[in-house]
Amino acid sequence: MSGRILVTGSAGHLGEALMRTLRAAAHDVVGLDIAASPYTDAVGSVADRDFVERCMRGVQAVLHTATLHKPHVATHTRQDFVDTNITGTLNLLEAAAANGVGAFVYTSTTSAFGDALTPPEGEPAAWITEDVVPVAKNIYGATKTAAEDMCRLFHRKQRLPCVVLRTSRFFPEPDDNPALRSAYADGNIKANEFLYRRVDVQDIVDAHLLAIARAPEIGFGRYIVSATAPFQLEDRAELRSDAPAVVARRVPGYEAEYARRGWRMFPSIERVYVNAAARQALGWRPRYDFAYVLERLRTGEDPRSPLAQAIGIKGYHGPSFEDGLYPVE
Prior knowledge:
The protein has helices at residues 13-24, 49-56, 78-98, 139-158, 178-183, 186-193, 201-218, 236-241, 243-250, 254-261, 276-282, 290-298, 306-311; strands at residues 4-8, 29-33, 42-43, 59-64, 103-109, 126-128, 162-167, 220-225, 271-273. With 329 residues, it is α/β, with parallel strands linked by helices. It has one domain (4-311): Rossmann fold (3-Layer(aba) Sandwich), CATH 3.40.50. InterPro entries: Epimerase_deHydtase, Lipid_A_modif_metabolic_enz, NAD(P)-bd_dom_sf.
């Protein structure tokens, strides 16, 4: 899409990735964030209606990545989440509709599925598609699904083309589960997750840019953005009871590299994110999956994309905590 692009959350992982990519391609792009950074052109909050309206002038497309995340649940109030994730999104949607913006892309999260992601003990792994109904687990998920629904409302009532991308985890920080961190090496955890619940930031950027281009013809769409899983629907029961056996069957030879590194596969996988709808609707071709990661590990290369390596770790909070990067609720 030609014309000015507004990127919210430009100081964050994805916001910076988008800003780097768009600037490198010589796009007219404006970065908005509450924090100053080399990729932030306008410092302010999306909850500030007047600020948002000023930033929206002359904009043709919006990439709305600004949000309070799951790690903020322990440090911010529920009202903070409403202010940023709901009011902030409403301000942007209203300003976008009033200014005739041609495409609005909202970055949501697979965390929006909440408790629907974990089936009862003894049940097969959850097969997560866009048809799964979210069950809010916390204020983060509740506010993200509310913002998604506002995007759908603005398409229906104001004819604003809106695409919602539910991204799986892509943060480079250590896992927020201390028990998991103590049991597995960080690289081991992230490699395992590429099988079912992780995506590289480069693939997310590609999906966002395709969503801008496709938004006018899509009208409204909501898509899961995660690395392509190697599993089939018939694997669900065994994934829950013996994940290593399924992985060995679907990705032959992974065991040798894991053994060389002293790594282990998770004994059980409780969910699988399915990205088929995003690939079909957006023409998206994600490159970074478990097979890609495994090949880079075998050759001694960094499995992350060059973009992910350039951005590195940011953290979610200024201070450090007793549990490291994350506060304890």
